[in-house]
Amino acid sequence: MIDRIVVVEITRIEAAHLAGLVGQFADLLRDSAPEEGDPAIARLVPSAYTDDDTAAREFRSLTQSDLLDRRGADAGLVLASLTDAADIPDDPEDPVLLEQVEIRLDAETARAWLRTLAAVRLVLATRLGVVEEDDHDHDDPRFGVYDWIGYRLDGLVGALERED
Asked: Is the dihedral of CA 146, 151, 156, 161 positive or negative?
């Protein structure tokens, strides 16, 4: 990936919602005990050995904490980059909510956004029961959030892959 500044254009209300989701994700990482067996946490740290349960448990015990800490650090970078854009008024009718803002991401922060959006989407997929692409209920409004995160992730990947 080329080191460059990536500009994310987003409305203030979207930034506030994204900050809320990333904040919930950071809470999940911080508050989940590995031994509780949360399927979302398990999906964030997939098994290194699918054919050997003992080796998989041992590997996970050695790596899970570090991996989740790194995911938490990434979420912190995303939240820090959203701070100004996510500052919204309490009035739901205030036109500033729909104001477009630019969030400038350096290479490190853009990579943190990529990893965090992908991880948040994975957690949402787990909570929604999405295993395959067809596991999508268009009548369930929660899938709108899942799709929106995917849209934002796709846009970021496209911006990072673009050769100027």
From this structure: positive
Angle 12-31/53-82 helices, nearest 10 degrees? 150
Q: Do 56 and 48 touch, CB atoms closer than 8 A?
A: yes
Residue 46 CB neighbours (<10 A): 10
What are φ and ψ of residue 47, in 5° steps?
A: -65, 135
Structure confidence by residue, pLDDT tens digits, 11-54: 999 999 999 999 999 999 988 766 567 888 888 887 788 888 88
Tell me the pTM: 0.87
The residues, ordered by sequence, that sit 6+ positions from 5 with a Cβ below 8 Å of its Cβ are 104, 105, 106
> CA-to-CA distance for 135 and 112, rounded, in angstroms?
27
CA 42 from centre of chain: 16
For residue 135 the two structure tokens come to: 């596991």
Instruction: For residue 42, give the nearest of 113, 125, 116, 117 by alpha carbon.
Output: 125
pLDDT digits (tens, 9 = 90+) for 107-131: 999 999 999 999 999 999 999 988 8
